[in-house]
Amino acid sequence: MASSTYLHGHHESVLAAHRRRTAENSCAYLLDHLHRGATVLDVGCGPGTITVDLARIVAPGTVVALDAEIGMLQATAALAAERQLDNVTVVLADAMALPWPDATFDIVHLHQVLQHVPDPRALLRECRRVCRPGGIVAARDADYAGFLWSPLDPDLDRWQTLYEQVARALGGEPDAGRYLLEWASDAGFREVIASASTWVFATSAERAWWGESWARRALQSGFATTALATQLAHRDELDAISRAWLRWAHAPTGWLLVPHGEILARR
Is pLDDT above 80 for 232? Predict the structure, then answer.
């Protein structure tokens, strides 16, 4: 991650959700462009679940996992060791000033990163710099204004509005998914292929983990801390949002859609 205040923080409720991410459910748009022997930079690797999947696919190629949080790198290294992968390296660094020369990597991957940085175009230019000619910078970001759910609930409407306010207070763009094509074009890539995909949560198990995760995050994560510190919300509002997520989780026909924009940008 680039040096900025990460909206979600690293509370266990956040990390538990992030650990469910895999290459299959979070970067399927990239998989056909990976090949054995490729060198990959995973920017903002988090707990490393996508990283290790990429490492398995490109082996004996290498994957470098980059994050600004040492705990995330430790988690990634531990997961790679658990999976018996010896082609993962972890690096503590600021993504806005990548510590590699030009044209180092075949693939630079970012998942849910650009929405959190104050200057996504600058980050994409830096990723382009370390990508080899003909290589790919791949990015995927959610679009929070496009979230849809049922049953409707005014407290979840409040959550959506508040999330966007908190993200922008931290200098981010919560609707990043719709801007990826624009940002990559402005960053100087010669070819940008834009696509989209969704996460849909509709089973009782899916509702339970997402709803219970956000019920906790509404009260304990970086989102909650910033909402209170900036006086964008009061504790009673966060309590109401937390209860709303539990109501949704327990609704027998509860449904949630999370839209994502995606880009494959060629150097």
Answer: yes
